[in-house]
Structure formats: structure tokens, C-alpha cells
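ok trying this again, last paste got cut off
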Amino acid sequence: MKKIATIILIIAIPLAVGSWYSVARKKSVKTETIKYTLENKTYNLLTAKTQEEWEKGLMFLDPTSSRLRGVNGMIFIFPDKQVRTFWNKNTYVDLDLYWLNDEKITGKSELPSIEKSKKIVTVNSSSPVNKVIEIIK
């Protein structure tokens, strides 16, 4: 009986992991990349234009991620101007955040990786903004 249970586990665990990986990949947010000039420097930025993309952002990506190859960060484009809050939950890269009202920079914040801070850190824009740019340090 123990042999049967062991065999079932040996088969079930890889199947479960494979299924989880397949679902996780499907949930992966696919975004376009744009060139954006900020403070006289041009960056390659992933775009976040939807609720799903805003929520996911650069979370779960480590600095060696293939998704970050050739990318300097992400631009979040919102349909309205609000005070925005960003945090470092599940974020494994240090970030400089630029708060923008249309194309005008209204502020800048630093957001450490969760590994560096060892706790969730939140930062807010000082005024309503409709764009936020995260630059990977």
C-alpha cells in the first residue's frame, strides 16, 4: 500500500507543479515596450495601461529575469489624475519612482526592494498624477 501511495505522489507532484506553472505563465502580463525620455535620458519602458498591468507592475521579477532584458523600468499610464500609492510587495529590484502630471514631473521617490527593506514600504505622490515611471536602479 505504501508503494502505491509513493508512486501516486511521484506522479502527482510533477503534474501539480506543471499545472501551476502553466497557469502562472498564462497569467503573466504581456506588455509593450516604449522609448520614453525623462530628464534628458531615454529609457526602454514596459507599459502598464490596464488594471491587471497596474496591479502586477514589476512584481515577482528578479534583476536577471528575461522579461527585464533590455528594459529600464515601467511606465504606468492611468486614465485620470489621482494621488497614487505604490509599494514594494513582491518587488525584487530597487526603484526610482517619478510622479508625472501629463508630461511634467511633480515628484520623485525611492522604493527599495522587499529584500532590502525586509518589510512592505509604501510611497505616495504628493499631488494627483496620471503617470508613474519606475526606473530600475
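PB: full thing came through this time. The domain at 31-136 is CATH 2.60.120.1140 (Jelly Rolls).
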